[in-house]
Structures are given as structure tokens and as C-alpha cells.
Amino acid sequence: MTGHPMPLDDGPEHDDRATSAATPAAAASGAGTAGRRNDADVDVLIVGAGPTGLTAACEARRHGLTARIVDRATGRSGFSKALVVHARTMEVFETMGVADRVRAAGARFAALNVNTRHRAPVRVDLLGLPWGDTAYPFWLSVPQYATEHILESHLTAGGGEVEWGVALKDLRDDDDGGGSVEAMLEHGDGRRETVRARWVIGCDGGRSRVREAAGLRLDRSDAGAVFVLADVLTTADLTEDEGHVFLGPQGLLLIVPMPEPRRWRVIAHVPEVREEERLTLDAPFLDELIRSRAGIAFGSHGVTWQSRFALSHGLVDHYRRGRVFLAGDAAHIHSPVGGQGLNTGVQDAHNLLWKLAAARRTEPARAEALLDSYEAERRPVARAMVRGTARATRALTTRTGMTRALLGTVAPTLLGRRPVQARLGRGVGMLDIGYPDGGPAAGRTGRGVRTAAGRRLPNPVLRDGGGRLHQRLAPLGFTWVVRARPGETWPAGDDRAWAGIPVVFLSGEEWAGLSRPGTAAPVILVRPDRYIAGAGSTAASVLSAVGPGMLPGTAPRRPGRLTG
């Protein structure tokens, strides 16, 4: 990114976007007009209104930041796209206040059935896995459009609005040195507008304009596999809350339940098809594919969405360039195996926005360290996800028929083992994701502080009807979680020793319910995203290591319009 406008190409990746018209409400979103620079200033400009961008916009407002969210499409897509929401993402949605609505819009996977030609099917009881300390012990089947609708309506209820039909054209540094970045937006009627934002977040997909304008690079690697996908109704009597995997010489086939009765997502690797070859993904094609690989007379009809795609993998070189950040598919692209994409993007945004809000009230040096921790924490997560899904995809889409036949023999044996099945719970559910040593946001010194830093705070059910631990934490900002020892009197939560941060006291019995707390230290400091910032014997020892400059005790500002 330079001090001059940077022209961009035609636009980001917005597959299958709807084309219905939508009119941005400029006054509600704080929009300005070309030539009125200060009237449009906001804390955060978010480019892209998919699940990642909507999460960022909702979180910005929840944390007291002003935000605009724009998307070059003219309206919301009605296609299902990503289908699975995992446990850790549901915990994020709980902090945002939308988990109940997302849960109601979806259907739980009860089981996963793995079928091969020469072995008995293996049934993995997903609901019976050792999920541990989460309120969401399941895979949730919910179409992406439903998730987006819930997030967008939540944003609108909080006073925000997506500005449809608004495309990013240029980004440039603010030559005035005013601590902002300038973005040139183009509206559907051709009108151009220059916006000054303190931060810009690119949530605009695999062909991100923001990424290009910021001079960041995402190197794609072709996975060498062509897949077809369709959402289709069936006349077959399949158990509707269970997924089905078929492994055989002809290639991988998945049949995944959707919330609508008798509607299924069909995903198939088509190794015999070249990328440039044309296919007609209609009901007869699907019926023959499913009959030949699964032996099921599917009775396909009501195909509402079909897609064909060649898999690729990639990871951006950096998540941040100055005041510009990337999140979601703008930062990482990968195979859909495991349903990690939407979930990782939502968690990217959740990690970033509390840090932007804290940086807004923190002295510059500490603010920079905090913002750098976004990449330090989230890029390794994406790198592991990209590599893991690439390995799984290679195994499942091997080209030789003999190897595919061997896979059909070996896979059921592996999936029949309880330790392997257990990974389909907490592992795929993203509950065990942690940040080594808490990342730069956790500080660098202090005995006993680093042992638990960077781990997700357990969320056990508390005794005496106390609900779950996460429900007792502060809805915004940091929280102390403290073990109350017998006969020990703890000071009130507003005592200056606690730096104005709310305190949750747990009895010895409640403390014992913290599965794998990672430390015997009786004082834990919890970040706004429910990860542990540090632990120690006293609040002072934790604060001295984490750094009080990163823990502003002031209440978030009310969202509003900035005037420069």
C-alpha cells in the first residue's frame, strides 16, 4: 500500500451472489459523499458481507466501534454454500447473542456412516463422542444463507446495515498522518466516495481486492481434484440426521443432511472429469452417480443449487499490513473437508475485533503489539487447517483405482477406533485450538503466568444451578476467574488490585470442574474471546506479566458516527 491510489481489477470472489437490488441507507451507516472526507470517517471499514464480514461488523458495534460494511454484490445470495457450524463457532455466536437463533435454524448431525464395498459400514455416533466442557456438543447443519441472515438481522437490530452494491476501488495511506487509511468506494450508480477509516478489514474472499491493494500475497496450490456439489430433494428413506460417506474405486461421495426435510447436500469427487470438461449437474446425473457409488435409488428432484469446482489451497503471507487486516477466505483458502472454512473466518473476526477495540484505548506501543498478535495467533491456526485439509483431500481423492480401493479397506478400520472418532468431536469442533504461550498479547515475563496462556477457558457446568462458566464472564472486556480457598477472604471485585476488571469467584468444587485448566495457579485472567491471557498466584503477578496497558478498564464507547 502506497501514498497514492492503487487501481484494482474487476472484483473479489462472490460465487453465486443474488442479483436483486438493494439500496444502501447512507445515513444509518454513517456514509458520506465524495469530497466530504471527514463526514464519512469510521473506526472500521469492512469489505465483504459474508459470515466473516458480518461477524466483524457485529463485533465492532458490540465493542463500541463505529463500522461500515460494504459488498460489491447487489444483495444476499440465497444459496446454501457452507453448511456446517462447529462447537467453537457456536460459542462465539453465544458471546454475540445469536447462538440460539443459529441453533434453531439448523439440525444436529447425530452420526456419520462410513460405507465401503467390502466392509461392514462404520457408524460414528457424533452425539456420543467425548465432547467435554461445551454447551454445543454437535456438528450443526445450517445453510450459509441462514447464518448470514441471522447475522445481518442482528447487525440491523443494533443500528448497522450492509451497504450492497458498493465496491472497493482503491486503498492508500493517509498522507496527513492522521492515523487512518483512505478507501475509495464506488457505488452502483457510478458515484465514488473516499472514506477515511482507522482500520480496514478485508473479508472479501479468495480474490480479495483488499489483499491486492495492501500488497499482500496468497499463493494458491492446485489440489488436482474436481468436485461436484448439489442440494437436492430425495424420495429415498434415509435417516435424515445422519451423514453418509461412500469410499470406493469410483471416487469419494458424501451425502449430508440439511435442515429441510428430505433435502440433502451431495458432494462427489469426479476423478474421471477434466477441469475444462462440461457437466450437466441435473437430477439424472445425480441419480446415476449415487446409484453407481452407493447403490441407492435416490430419486433426485428439486435441485436448488449445484456447483462444480477444482480444489486449491493457499495461505496469505501476512494477515496485516499497517492498518489493513485480512480475515476469512481473503487470508486462507482450502478444501471443504471438515467444514472448517466459515468457522475459521468467524473466529478470525472474533479474535481481531476485541483487539481493535482495546487498541483504540491503549498507548501506541502496546497497541501495536496487541494488533500484531492477531497474525501471530490466527495465521498458525489457518496454516494447520490448510495443511490438514490438504492431506485429507489427497488421501480421499487419490487418482488410482487400486489406491482408492485400499483406502476403502483401511479407512473403516481407522474410524472404528475410539481415539480417531474422538477427534471428530473436540478436534473438528475446534475446541482444542490454542495459541502457543498466548501469543504477543500475553506478555513475556512473570513466573507461573505462561503455563495456561493461550488456551481456551474451559466451560463446565457450575454447581447449584449456576449455569456454565462462560455465562458468568463479562460480556465485554477481560474477566478474572479466581479460586476461593477455604477460609480465605477475597477483596471485592472493584478493589484497585483487580484493575477495574470484573472478578468471578469459584468454590473449590467449581474449580475442580475446570477440565485441564493447565495450571494450579488460583488466579486466571480471561480475554474477551474466552481464551486465557495469563494465570498466577495473585492479580498483581498476572498484570505485571500481561501488561496493564493492554487491559483498558474503561467501558466501551456507545457506537456512533465519527465526524473526524
Protein topology:
Blueprint: H1 26-29, E1 42-47, H2 51-62, E2 67-71, E3 84-85, H3 87-96, H4 99-105, E4 107-108, E5 111-116, E6 122-125, E7 140-141, H5 144-157, E8 162-164, E9 166-173, E10 181-187, E11 192-202, H6 209-213, E12 218-233, E13 242-247, E14 253-257, E15 263-269, H7 283-294, E16 301-316, E17 320-321, E18 324-326, E19 332-333, H8 341-359, H9 364-396, H10 401-415, H11 418-427, E20 479-483, E21 503-506, H12 508-512, E22 523-526, E23 532-536, H13 539-546
Parallel strand pairs: 1-2, 1-11, 2-8, 5-13, 11-18, 20-21
Antiparallel strand pairs: 3-7, 4-7, 5-6, 9-10, 10-11, 12-15, 12-16, 13-14, 14-15, 16-19, 17-18, 20-22, 22-23
Helix pairs in contact: 2-5, 2-8, 3-4, 8-9
Number of extended strands? 23
Envelope shape: globular
What's the story with the biggest beta sheet? 8 strands, mixed
In which range does the helix fraction lie? 25-40%
Distance between the termini: 22 Å
Kindly provide the radius of gyration, computed on alpha-carbon positions and rounded to a whole number of angstroms.
Answer: 24 Å
Q: Could you report the average pLDDT, rounded to the nearest whole number?
A: 82
Which structural category do the helix and sheet elements fall into?
A: alpha+beta
- Uncertain runs are 2-40, 443-450, 553-564
The number of distinct helices, counting runs of at least 4 residues, comes to: 13
Instruction: Tell me the β content.
Output: 15-25%
